[in-house]
């Protein structure tokens, strides 16, 4: 298959068409959300930590990715997120599955063009560069990790994208951008780190231009059933063990996100559960970690990364039992005329 070039001259990898479309422990608070409950105040929206604990959480997130990003890039490349493995699809590399994830999310969200995008929790800039090449748009990314930001800028320069893609250390809950700056607001697996989900969604909506799209791809817990006031104790215990290793605060459900989007006045809200489509991912990560290169890399990276690796089977268990969900949420910010 011939290599694809867009108008920027970016080389796009060929993609076959799918046949399918001592640390703080931040314990997840119980939520009272169900698929049919009314939009009242939910426990997960309340402050889950003190100001001091939030500061420690952010420092922990930064240190975790400072330490582990190099190993991930060596093993998996520049995309630091799940791959897309739909049932019945032909065998493919994990790296191709990650590229497919970006493409399938954009397709699902109905995004066919962009001029300015922001990548919230950008990692080393893989999504930003791919989307910049695809649409010929500018891209800015933010991360709490100085190592990631520096590496993202380095890779962009090497790939000839230094002028169109830029990255900086910044807080997703206090973004350094003016209102209405971007027509594509992208968050690929960073929402789970946010200690204040309401403020997170507010900032995404604030920096989105009228008519623009907001996309969140994130880990959630299952939607609570009718009459349930919270997760089961064994479910909370499992999530709390994951939280400790990966520096995660309270989890929420995709329906909680839907209500937050509605509260911000976003429209055309759509959600999806792609847990089945990413099902092989954690087994693939575990397999790569068990290679000689992976084991040596873990010991070189340090205890924080090792602890994260030890928790990987718990993520696989969470998906298998239906507790952990891989959810997508997208919406559009109304055009100026619609807001008046």
Automatic annotation (TrEMBL):
Domain Methyltransferase type: 118-216
Any GO BP annotation: alkaloid metabolic process
InterPro entries (alphabetical): Erg6_SMT_methyltransf, Methyltransf_11, PiNMT-like, SAM-dependent_MTases_sf
Protein keywords: Alkaloid metabolism, Methyltransferase, S-adenosyl-L-methionine, Transferase
Sequence segments annotated as region (SAM motif II): 180-188
Pathway entry: Alkaloid biosynthesis
Gene3D superfamilies linked to this entry: Vaccinia Virus protein VP39
Residue ranges of the region described as Disordered: 1-22
Family to which this protein belongs: Belongs to the class I-like SAM-binding methyltransferase superfamily. gTMT family.
Region (SAM motif III): 207-216
Molecular functions (GO terms): S-adenosylmethionine-dependent methyltransferase activity
Protein name from the UniProt record: Methyltransferase type 11 domain-containing protein
CDD domains the UniProt entry points to: AdoMet_MTases (cd02440)
Chain spans, region SAM motif I: 117-126
Name of a matching Pfam family: Methyltransf_11
